Amino acid sequence: IQLNDGSNLSGLQVIADEKLENYEEISKLSTGAALEVWGTLVESQGRGQDFEVQSEQVLIRGTAPGEEYPLQKKGHTLEFLRDIAHLRPRTNTLGAVFRIRNTLSQAIHRFFQDRGFLYVHTPIITANDAEGAGEMFHVTSLDLEQLPKTKAGKVDYDQDFFGTDVSLTVSGQLGAEGFALAFTNVYTFGPTFRAENSNTARHLAEFWMIEPEMAFMDLQGMLVLTEEFLRELLKECLDRHEEDLAFLQKMYDQELISGLKHICDTPFETLTYTEAVKILENSGKSFEFPVEWGCDLQSEHERYLSEVHVGGPLNLIDYPKDIKAFYMRLNDDEKTVAAMDVLVPGVGEIIGGSQREERLDVLDERMDAHLKEELWWYRDLRRYGTVPHAGFGLGFERLVLYLTGMENIRDAIPFPRVPNNAAF
Ligand code: 4AD
Ligand code: MG
Predict the structure, then answer these.
(1) Taking a C-beta distance cutoff of 8 angstroms, is the pair 312, 268 a contact?
(2) Cα 267 from Cα 75, distance rounded (Å)
(3) pLDDT (tens digit, 9 = 90+) per residue, 238-273?
(4) What is the rounded CA–CA span in Å between residue 93 and residue 89?
(5) What three-state secondary structure class fits 153?
């Protein structure tokens, strides 16, 4: 019997012989049954495993219905497995992915805790659109069938639970900034939500984000930290998941392990946005979305830069201010901001961050009247002991994609939330 409790890929071989009183029943079991086995762990006589259990008692706790069981021994496509998200953690592939995901989340906490960062739990329900992109899910306790209206015919949020219009957060950054000015170095690690209707292999409507925020930190200092951070996570995975990674490599990505090892000892390259645009313009490639200075880079551009131009991870810095969020620090050229994206082969952007605008007068230039009113408390942070500070957001599922060689972000999170799908 091949028994697996999820702790590793290969499970444990159990020898069940005729001496067992329920041998007849056991011999009729099929894939998916749940067993409790008592016996002795011995060195294996056969090949393929070091140890096995010579069973003395095998208790059948739950049977599975033979051919009707959706997970047969033959391989299934990842698409098929997404439709049975409640069963797919039992498969070799998703088992490996979720073990690696667990290791990464522990390693992330350790990285920051070892460096004295405070873990801060920023709110999930918020009245602020931190990224200003307007891609938020509303939260309300109003009766949607009978919405109270103001005289002007708008929804009357005064009557709603919080007395105002609130949503699920897109980022914990703004709150984390407040904490960084009290605790110096902090980080969040929590769920974030985006109602962008991009049905791609890189976007989820609900994803987890790690957001460190550091006082007395500038963009250059942060580049050093992110590189050290990603490398440490990578090493932890290589150390602890040899078997899982070898399996994923065999199944999905022939260069997975060598690629990860390569990054462990190659410094990240850094390019400015302006340099990157020149490289793209001179690449001789015809992109679906044409490139010119000032445009937002599309995933085809990001992938060209990291996969073809650099062949590894790449920091892209100093983006045009008009395509980045209001809180990013204006550079001396007054055209660009101290932004940083980290791009990796196969995935594209996994980190987005920046040095923050700590000068109130400059910040005010980038906020309209409405935003100033909404974020009065954020402006306060620039009035009371403001300091240069910086932070970034790492998309956790994109990190998992990168380290497992999976291609679709829906295979990097237990129960993906994407347009038209929240069944599980
Ligand atoms: O670049 P983003 O939008 O940056 C922020 O939210 C900042 N407030 C972070 C900060 O400076 N504290 O998002 C950060 C990262 C992206 O680089 C990407 O990895 C991930 O979050 N991300 C998504 N992952 C999955 N699905 C989505 N819809 C995502 N949107 C962003
Ligand atoms: Mg971004």
Answers:
(1) yes
(2) 38
(3) 999 999 999 999 999 999 999 999 888 889 999 999
(4) 8
(5) coil
Ligand 1 mutation pick, 398, 413, 417, max ligand atoms within 8 A of CB: 398
71 in helix, strand or coil?
coil
Confidence of residue 133 (pLDDT cuts 50, 70, 90): confident
Whose Cα sits closest to atom 22 in ligand 1? 395
Of ligand 1's listed atoms, the one at least distance from the Cα of 170 is 6
Residue nearest atom 15 of ligand 1, based on CA coordinates = 395
Cβ proximity of 169 and 123 under 8 Å:
yes
Instruction: Say if pTM beats, i.e. exceeds, 0.70.
Output: yes
Mean pLDDT of all residues in 358-387: 97
- What separation in Å is there between the alpha carbon of 303 and the centre of ligand 2? 14
Angle, CA of 21, 17 and 48, to the nearest 5°: 145
Residues 333-352 pLDDT 10s: 999 999 999 999 989 999 99
Measured in residues, the chain has a length of: 424
* Nearest ligand 1 atom to alpha carbon 194: 28
How far is Cα of residue 413 from the mean position of the Cα atoms in its chain? 8
Give the single-character DSSP code of 83. T
